[in-house]
Amino acid sequence: MRVLVIGSGAREHALLLALRRDPEVEALAIAPGNAGTAAIAQQHDVDITSGEAVAKLARQIGADLVIIGPEVPLVLGVADAVRAAGIACFGPTRDAARIEGSKAFAKDVMAAAGVRTARSEIVDNPARLDAALDRFGPPGGEAAWVVKDDGLAAGKGVVVTTDRDVARAHAASLLDAGHPVLLESFLDGPEVSLFCVVDGETVVPLLAAQDFKRVGNNDTGPNTGGMGAYAPLPWLPADVADRIVDEIVKPVAAELVRRGSSFSGLLYAGLAITSQGPAVVEFNCRFGDPETQSVLALLDSPLGQLLRAAATGTLAQLPPLKWRDGAAVTVVLAAENYPSRPRVGDVITGSEADGVLHAGTARRDDGAVVSCGGRVLSVVGTGSDLAAARAAAYALIESIRLPGSHFRSDIGLAAAEGRISV
Ligand code: GLY
């Protein structure tokens, strides 16, 4: 099978590496890719938000399967265009991608499916903001205000704060920019990312993972697109993972089918394990970044065959997935100033080692690898347990040089020390 991957992050680099292990994958291409993916896939520079451009490229290179990584092309309907060209595509239709693209749609689906999620309210009129803030957060009994951009914001549109002025300022800035604001009640408890390969009502869960959204150690500082992740979760009882699939993901998949918005692709449930059980923080319509880097490092089954089965409606016929023993830890190396406007153009050394996945990188004319984005690299360490995987990941990241860069040093630490319980 000839596979075209769409995207340019470390998630797409991880997808390519896992696809390369599948004996049925004979050729790999990526658009637009980065300096790291260029070494393992044919690279194409097209506008990945244009369905027409992606379908044309897929036809030109004879792709049998297109895998769309990021949410923006999915929400814009690129998967629809690829399918209309008669090519199998892993990724939901524009209609089904609203589960991520519109938080109001997601809340409506969850309500109809009877799935636990945070209480929420959309505010689109600044005159109603203060009264709405009073219905959420302290002193109303909740631990914090949760203020979100109702549209796509690459994880950075969320502010969780106990300071009403901070919550108000974030909401007001979103409203000033013409973005509706979603206020939510705060869900307490450790977070879980559960990725499920979905084809209509067939749901195949991958290993559960946890990501780290704040920029600083001990979950301090602003939200980012994700600073690290680990899998599996030694503290998550198997019956809770089963409940997430049976009581949350399957009912949501069935509700999407019932509405005529059947989902085919990767349904990502972001959850909090509260004292009353799992509750949904958000759904995404694609693989998460950086959790994918950890999850796929442990996948033993052939990824191309799995994603092709979902894309062609044969997922239910696949044998159960096989996983490698042990654990995987991903640590993100970010550019100076990220998540604000990152410094770019710095030379990176040590980025060609095994286990280093590229994201915001480009190759300069003189051959040097330079930074060109906020999350520059992901390093992935594996080991027999979380402590060993952490040691491998941190040894690797210490061997890379990028002026001004920063990373969290506590990815997976609380879990490795047995400090998380549900
Ligand atoms: N890990 C967060 C995300 O992919 O949205």
Automatic annotation (TrEMBL):
SUPFAM superfamilies: Glutathione synthetase ATP-binding domain-like, PreATP-grasp domain, Rudiment single hybrid motif. GO terms for biological process: 'de novo' IMP biosynthetic process; purine nucleobase biosynthetic process. It catalyses: 5-phospho-beta-D-ribosylamine + glycine + ATP = N(1)-(5-phospho-beta-D-ribosyl)glycinamide + ADP + phosphate + H(+). Keywords: ATP-binding, Ligase, Nucleotide-binding, Purine biosynthesis. Its EC number is 6.3.4.13. Pfam families: GARS_A (PF01071), GARS_C (PF02843), GARS_N (PF02844). Its cofactor is Mn(2+); Mg(2+). The keyword NAD does not apply. Pathway: Purine metabolism; IMP biosynthesis via de novo pathway; N(1)-(5-phospho-D-ribosyl)glycinamide from 5-phospho-alpha-D-ribose 1-diphosphate: step 2/2. Signal peptide: none annotated. Residues 107-312 form the ATP-grasp domain. It comes from the Bacteria. GO terms for molecular function: ATP binding; metal ion binding; phosphoribosylamine-glycine ligase activity. HAMAP family: GARS. Belongs to the GARS family. This is Phosphoribosylamine--glycine ligase.
